[in-house]
From TrEMBL:
<protein>
    <submittedName>
        <fullName>Putative membrane protein</fullName>
    </submittedName>
</protein>
<dbReference type="InterPro" id="IPR016570">
    <property type="entry name" value="UCP010361"/>
</dbReference>
<feature type="transmembrane region" description="Helical">
    <location>
        <begin position="420"/>
        <end position="440"/>
    </location>
</feature>
<dbReference type="GO" id="GO:0005886">
    <property type="term" value="C:plasma membrane"/>
</dbReference>
<keyword id="KW-0808">Transferase</keyword>
<dbReference type="Pfam" id="PF09594">
    <property type="entry name" value="GT87"/>
</dbReference>
<keyword id="KW-1003">Cell membrane</keyword>
<keyword id="KW-0812">Transmembrane</keyword>
<feature type="transmembrane region" description="Helical">
    <location>
        <begin position="318"/>
        <end position="336"/>
    </location>
</feature>
<feature type="transmembrane region" description="Helical">
    <location>
        <begin position="254"/>
        <end position="274"/>
    </location>
</feature>
<comment type="similarity">
    <text>Belongs to the glycosyltransferase 87 family.</text>
</comment>
<keyword id="KW-0472">Membrane</keyword>
<feature type="transmembrane region" description="Helical">
    <location>
        <begin position="181"/>
        <end position="212"/>
    </location>
</feature>
<dbReference type="GO" id="GO:0016758">
    <property type="term" value="F:hexosyltransferase activity"/>
</dbReference>
<feature type="transmembrane region" description="Helical">
    <location>
        <begin position="382"/>
        <end position="400"/>
    </location>
</feature>
<keyword id="KW-1133">Transmembrane helix</keyword>
<feature type="transmembrane region" description="Helical">
    <location>
        <begin position="148"/>
        <end position="169"/>
    </location>
</feature>
Length: 499
């Protein structure tokens, strides 16, 4: 029997993007215009969750179609073709290169060559291994067919991860389910989904944020621990959570989350740590020893100055910049006149990691897509950022085509690739700047315009502050911000003016 509180939450009107977002309204003209006032949203078979899941599948399929030139021949005939067609993927190459085709066990069996062991976290390695078990091709088949089948199996598994991500974002903000369309329709998701295995960690992180929004701190921690066992970046979300729980005095829930994360991470990693320690360490030693690489501002510095920067210097510089970002985020979280939303702080910290890291692979944009959709659900800003990321996606492949085409010089020269990197950096900084503006001027925050506090905040949603830096100096301003956006019935012909 649902509680009265749960019933009231479900009966709250759904925010209609075409009434709040001018870009969404303009785009809706392709499908008949704005949603009418008396439309029965979510009452038929095509609920927001189902629509967004279908759209995510469709966009993922379009991304697979974009990879057809590589699937048919470019992965197997030289190197330049897969770059000129912008359809490169690690998946088929690592099927052979990391021993899955020969039945080697990740972390336990040594690989031929310099790599020695698989350089991925344990849960991602398990994902890769399961996909190899499902790649049912006779040993007599040529290597090309086996690589094609391995990519197809991984694509099917990653499609499930993409749908889970979109659905979790759809359900995180109860009154804003259509924000999930930002994820489902993201061009960069379609383009980069099958480059690598990042979508596994992205889906687990999105599911964790959904659990936190429902007040399930332990489930959040378990999912974050599993996500961290697949990729490092999800662990960063514990820092903004600490800051918000500190400000709201929700220490019990935070410790439950940390306990769940540590237990889940250890459950996955401990067997490999104990029985294959050298293989388990490879991910960490590889990332520490990896030189500066594509997509980073460090690469621009070396190319423009002609001065090589050693790995230790880059590691130290990246670490110091992240420390600055962590401290800055703490100041923002604890001193803002109104407590920031969890998704806002999570986006800022992960974006700082992306911006300061010594490498930016094109699929790393997948880490940010669900966070941007929750932190800044405005189509104009989202599309500006996506345009920058798609520009970088094309830039890196054309640059690699230029470096591998010999005297033909097909593709983008070094200076052009630097422009693509700057475009990516500026796009990410732009979305971060808008989110910081929303934190200090909450009346600009689309999520808070209907009177909501932090729909993804779980136990800190609508919780009173118990610790604020400089609380006395801005108590009145905080109260004013709480009053700027009373509950609005979004069925009206027009919502509040777009900023």
């Amino acid at each position: 029997m649902p509680s009265a509180e749960d019933t009231s939450v479900r009966q709250e009107p759904v925010v209609r993007p075409t009434h709040q977002d001018e870009t969404a309204a303009a785009g809706s003209e392709l499908f008949g215009g704005r949603v009418g006032r008396w439309a029965l949203l979510g009452k038929g078979p095509l609920t927001p969750v189902r629509v967004i899941a279908l759209v995510a599948i469709g966009m993922f399929a379009l991304g697979m179609v974009q990879k057809i030139p590589c699937y048919e021949w470019a992965w197997f005939r030289g190197t330049t073709s897969q770059y000129t067609h912008a359809c490169y993927s690690d998946i088929p190459h690592l099927y052979i290169g990391r021993g899955f085709a020969e039945g080697l066990v990740p972390y336990f069996d040594r690989l031929p060559g310099d790599m020695k062991y698989l350089e991925y976290p344990v849960l991602t390695g398990l994902f890769m291994q399961v996909a190899s078990w499902l790649t049912l091709t006779p040993e007599s088949d040529p290597a090309q067919q086996r690589e094609q089948m391995y990519w197809m199996v991984n694509a099917g598994m990653l499609m499930v991860c993409a749908v889970v991500t979109a659905v979790c974002v759809t359900r995180t903000h109860r009154r804003r389910p259509w924000d999930g369309l930002l994820v489902a329709l993201a061009p960069a998701l379609a383009l980069t989904a099958t480059i690598n295995w990042d979508l596994l960690a992205v889906a687990l992180t999105a599911a964790a944020m959904l659990m936190w929004s429902r007040g399930r701190a332990l489930a959040f921690g378990v999912l974050i621990g599993l996500a961290t066992a697949a990729k490092f970046y999800p662990a960063l979300l514990l820092w903004p959570l600490l800051l918000l729980c500190w400000r709201a005095g929700k220490w019990r829930e935070f410790f439950h989350a940390v306990l769940g994360a540590a237990a889940a991470w250890l459950l996955v990693n401990l067997p490999v740590m104990v029985f294959a320690p050298e293989g388990w360490k490879k991910f960490y030693t590889f990332n520490r020893e990896r030189p500066l690489d594509f997509g980073s501002f460090w690469l621009i510095i070396t190319q423009r100055t002609g001065t090589a920067i050693d790995v230790e210097t880059v590691n130290l510089g990246s670490t110091l910049l992240m420390v600055v970002a962590v401290v800055a985020l703490a100041v923002v979280a604890l001193a803002a006149p109104r407590r920031p939303r969890f998704a806002q702080l999570a986006l800022l910290l992960v974006a700082a990691f992306v911006l300061t890291n010594k490498v930016y692979s094109p699929q790393y944009v997948l880490w940010l897509i669900p966070l941007v959709a929750l932190a800044r659900p405005r189509w104009r800003d989202f599309l500006i950022w996506q345009a920058c990321e798609c520009g970088y996606f094309l830039g890196i492949w054309l640059y690699l085509a230029y470096t591998t085409s010999g005297d033909k010089h097909q593709g983008l020269p070094e200076e052009g690739y630097q422009v693509a990197i700057v475009l990516h950096l500026l796009g990410t900084l732009y979305i971060c700047a808008v989110v910081v503006r929303d934190i200090f001027l909450p009346e600009h925050d689309p999520v808070r315009r209907d009177g909501s506090d932090d729909p993804s905040g779980g136990v800190v949603d609508n919780a009173p502050d118990v610790f604020v830096v400089g609380e006395g100096s801005h108590a009145a301003r905080h109260a004013a911000h709480l009053a700027v956006a009373p509950r609005v019935e979004w069925g009206a012909a027009r919502g509040p003016a777009a900023d």
